[in-house]
Amino acid sequence: MQIFSFAFFCLTAAVFCLIFFGNKLLTKNSQKVHYTKWVLLLASYLFVCYADYRFFLVLGALTLIVWLCGKNLRYIKYGVLAAVLSLAFFKYTNFFAASFSRLLGEDDFTALNIIMPLGVSFYTFSAISYLVDIHRGKLQPMPLLDVALYLAFFPKLTSGPIQRGDTFFEQLNRPRSLGWNSFSEGIQIFCFGLFKKIVLADRLSVLVNQVYQTPLAFDAVTVWLAVLAYSLQIYFDFSGYSDMAIGAAKILDIHMPRNFNLPYLAHNVTELWKRWHISLSSWLQEYLYISLGGNRKGKIRAYVNLFATMVIGGLWHGASWTFIVWGALHGGALVVHKLWMLLTKSNEKHHNWLSNLLSISVTFLFTSFCWIFFRAESVNKAFQILGRLFCFGDGVVHLYLWLFIALGGLLVGSIVAAIGAKDGVLPQNRQNQSLVDGYYPILNLSKFWPLVLFFVICGLIICLAYTGGSPFIYGAF
Fold first, then answer.
1. Rg of the chain (C-alpha set)
2. How many beta carbons lie within 10 A of that of residue 471, not counting itself?
3. Of 240, 272, 273, residue with least CA distance to 440
4. Contact 323, 121 (CB under 8 A)
5. What's this model's pTM, rounded to 2 decimal places?
């Protein structure tokens, strides 16, 4: 069930109506809270079973293990181990088996028929954070119903964001304030994400797929444009999904953390990872980097831990050497940036527009080069693309118009967001706001002309949508 499918719309609408009218009939807050939890959980499990009932069995078994282990500090490590092993089995068995087979000189390895459960990469990370937070005293063991809903909540199940347990449980245990305010804000955020996905990201995929499939057939300029297009595609695709998930949750009056904060305006790779896939990067820092020792055992060990964290983060994205190389490149860049900061005693303050532009451009160029390994089918294909970038032989020229449209849209959106952030507009100032959190223009749909503008935007989405269809990039992870 795609998050922008008719089935998902019907599911979200049904949940909204059940909770809204159910809360009207119930009188006690405790009854409303308990009723809402059951509605959300049943909808989430229906979402999983819609894909495959076996996915429900895997999720249900892990949920039960995590809940039982979380009730006793002595067993928490076994719960973490169960989560890690489940992820390793479903996601990496074939990868490691094939790698060992090639290492032994046997190239006839036949992949095992293992289907990766829906959302396993994300709900295992949520399970680990829940258990570790209990071990660290940041969280108390929660009832089975709460734990099950935390792991299975359907808007975030397949691609995040990875929400922390404390903020999620706190929201669960209060009555939902569903109504026009939550719906009007949530549907607008959802539509912003939908535009990013089916208008921009999916249209960019046309150029990207052609060039990455046969890079030697295109000239250097077209390959450069395809590399740039993929940087935009993956941003619009994944941030679009995050927006839709956040918007759907907002309709149900559940706040989820923002996952992107204008990452291509980062001045360096350290800042990039504070802006890109924020929920994952913060998870890796808190639950992996710190668990490895962080910076508590000297600078050399800190650099090793940082590099190892990014390599593991790369492997989390997919069972392929291309993802490992991608993670190693970012890990190495983070270490180099830390060393540069140490040697130059720089405070990273930029005093003029030229230094800002240069640092942003270099960071974006490096990020785009790294995306080549992320997108390529193999390491060899990635090096073919890199070689073609600097080869000025003949080839097909394809100046894809939608690339420039998407780039213009990103620049305009970034400028609007930067102005909103500079003005310090806060979500709480709902009556006077023009932006939410310096990023989204939220219209007052109770007024005529904002409502007309919203329907115009919806019309543009329908008219400009790419009908070829393209799955979410992070849906495969």
1. 23
2. 11
3. 240
4. no
5. 0.90
